[in-house]
Amino acid sequence: DNTPELRPTHPLALAPVVAPAASVDGFAKQFLQNLNFDQGVTLSTSDVNDQYLALAYTVRDYLMARWFDDRAQQKAQQNKTVCYLSAEYLLGRQLDNNLLAARLTDIATEALAQCGIDIDDLRQVEIEPGLGNGGLGRLAACFVDSLATMSIPAIGYGIRYEYGIFRQAFADGQQIEQPDAWLRMGSPWDFAHPEAAQTISFAGTTETYDDEGVERTRWVPEWNVLAVPYNMMVPGYHNGRVNTLRLWRAVATNAFDLHTFNSGDYVESVRAQTFAENISKVLYPEDSTPQGKELRLQQQYFFVAASIADFIENVLPEDFDLENLPERVIFQLNDTHPVIGVPELMRVLVDEKKLEWDAAWAITQKCFAYTCHTLLPEALEVWSVDLLGRLLPRHLEIIYRINDEFLLEVRERFGDDEMLIRNMSIIGEHPSRSVRMAYLATVAGSKVNGVAELHSQLLRDNVLKDFATMWPDKFTNVTNGVTPRRFLRLANPDLSALITEALGAGWTVDLERLRGLEALADDADFRERFAAVKASNKRRLSRVLEARGETPLSDDHLIDVMIKRLHEYKRQTLKVLHIVSTYEGIVTGRLDVDAVQPRTFLFGAKAAPGYGMAKRIIHLINAVGEVVSADERVQGKLKVLYPANYNVTLAESIIPAADLSEQISLAGKEASGTGNMKLALNGALTIGTDDGANVEIRKLVGDDNFFLFGMSEPEVEALWADGYRPAEFYQRDERLRSAIDLIASGAFSDGDRTVFEPLVSNLLYEDRFMALADFSSYLDAQERVDAAYADQDGWVRSAILNVARSGYFSSDRAMRDYLDRIWHATPVS
Ligand code: GFP
């Protein structure tokens, strides 16, 4: 073949990729080009969605060159990469964050204005990708932001769900779930890379074979799907770095059967496609059916297998010696969802790369670390051996072998203590044979961490006690953190400006600098300006609520917020009992009205679709809200607001406006909490139990600036051990009796006593999370809140001290702790 090889000779083809000019003209030009050539419209024929998309493409164009550079550099430098494996990323809107990171906010605003467009109108169009459920997913999003800002080579791996967390609506006060079609208007922030798809296999059998005299095992799978990566850019704040979030979408290997189609069976002709695409169809498919369970395991294996293969094939250089893998990667397991990655890496190393088992195990143990996010035993994931063996037969064999060797080690250390063996085994026997994923992660991981000091302590003392005895050094703590870029700089621009004026600009990447505000808490002028910011944030929230068709806020109300997943352990019920009791107290004259501060109780929460009790609690909150709002006797005093479909975007409006942060879980149940951190950082005072990260918040902000109530974790344990009888607490406290009686009487259900009866009896006779036991102490603390709020000046002072002392809760600090204690990766230079 004499054809000369074609090489680029054009000077432009040889030049490095450059970003458009960072000027108003440069931006406007790029924007209009994108409008024309990507959206296929002119400025005059474009609508707001076209404009939003063209704007997003423009921002992307600015980031692109950096992103190319960073990936090339990561490969060349061969630094260790943090691969964060997470089934959830609750990202929130991208536009503002990316503008901010790339220092483009002012330029873009001005360029659009010159095109006759108000950038605020475009902001409203963006649909946030709700690819997560709550704290765990939002934490992952904060972490990728911090990693990019700190120039750490990192890839976030996850699933590109077609439908994220459901959209919540209320009908007669009850939650209804609607699909979250977040992709329907286009998805400008990610790109598909079908050429980098991975084939992911399932089911089938395993067989042994003779490999040049060595007996090996191989997996003969039954079916495959393609995992197609979608890359999202994750820009660091003002440092020119752009990391990658790579989310996988499932696509059929053979999507369409033309023969069947031509025979007229149109549904059957796309069966394979439907089947495959189900894997990335929805976040947390309902798993009360066997099909739902299987689908979840498919999802987990799907994204983890694709991610591991991607890292080995596309990030590592060719001919990389896998013996050195631990020097190049740490796979951080965000909870148990990605733990199937452990046997997957073993399978790749042993079956495919033909390493010896022991060598492969030594590598695997160094490459994984595990973060646990719960203390509830029912939340520790297990997979039935039947299901796992059917879907991933080779992985089950590998898990058995890992377990056999591990249990030998246990016997060597502790003797033949059969009870201990049974308790520590990765395979549980009761009620049926299952794989305990948290145990597998603990055995395999180089480190295991909890997400707040108390949580990590309780993991060591209770949940994973035997493992901690065996490997004390494996256990560590990294208290969660939140990104100050999104949750202070963007969400609270006025407070940010005030802080910058007082302290200079550096605090955004060095949050401990907020300490400098402490001195200003005693400055009357600063307090006044701080209070004005809070008031303006309340007005802003009020406008946001009105635009959503909700009731606006009343002036001068204390804004009391409880925003978090709906779960019994978080005790939204305790909050409702407080509201009902206050309402009842005012109406009956038991309470001195003047001592009760005008308050708006603001809830934001979704309940898992299959969680009946949580849905009843939502119904009760709405029912109480309706009665309280309609009752003339408490007008101007009490208001209950529960805007539907709480999400990151709404949180960004609520948090800066909050006065009081409700963190009222039963001690020993909330692993950490992160909303608690965001609220304190924005100057809300916490009313909380000594649970999760509340403990650390209280220590930092000081007892005078925190309303502590309730039993401590050891007291909770003691009460359980004693035999907890909630009805006794009901008998003992008249306020509690009146509140519960009022609910039971049908006062919030048009006289129908049956509606909330299951909730009432659950409280009186079970109350697993001890709301009744903590009620009195909670009400007393609420009285202290009222008294403190009456002294506005004192309150503002405390609020400032909360901001000043919350710097520790930056996710940048959390990343530093992970880097020091677990990952040992270094920034790219
Ligand atoms: C879970 C825990 C929280 C913790 C987050 C992040 O949140 O205590 O703060 O993970 O570690 F419960 P959810 O996903 O359950 O909301």
UniProtKB/TrEMBL annotation:
Superkingdom: Bacteria
UniProt catalytic activity: [(1->4)-alpha-D-glucosyl](n) + phosphate = [(1->4)-alpha-D-glucosyl](n-1) + alpha-D-glucose 1-phosphate
Keyword Transferase (UniProt): yes
PROSITE patterns: PHOSPHORYLASE (PS00102)
EC code(s) of this entry: 2.4.1.1
The entry's keywords: Carbohydrate metabolism, Glycosyltransferase, Pyridoxal phosphate, Transferase
InterPro entries xref list: Glycg_phsphrylas, Glyco_trans_35, Pyridoxal_P_attach_site
Cofactor needs: pyridoxal 5'-phosphate
Function summary: Phosphorylase is an important allosteric enzyme in carbohydrate metabolism. Enzymes from different sources differ in their regulatory mechanisms and in their natural substrates. However, all known phosphorylases share catalytic and structural properties.
NCBIfam families documented for this protein: P_ylase (TIGR02093)
Family in the record: Belongs to the glycogen phosphorylase family.
Protein name per Swiss-Prot or TrEMBL: Alpha-1,4 glucan phosphorylase
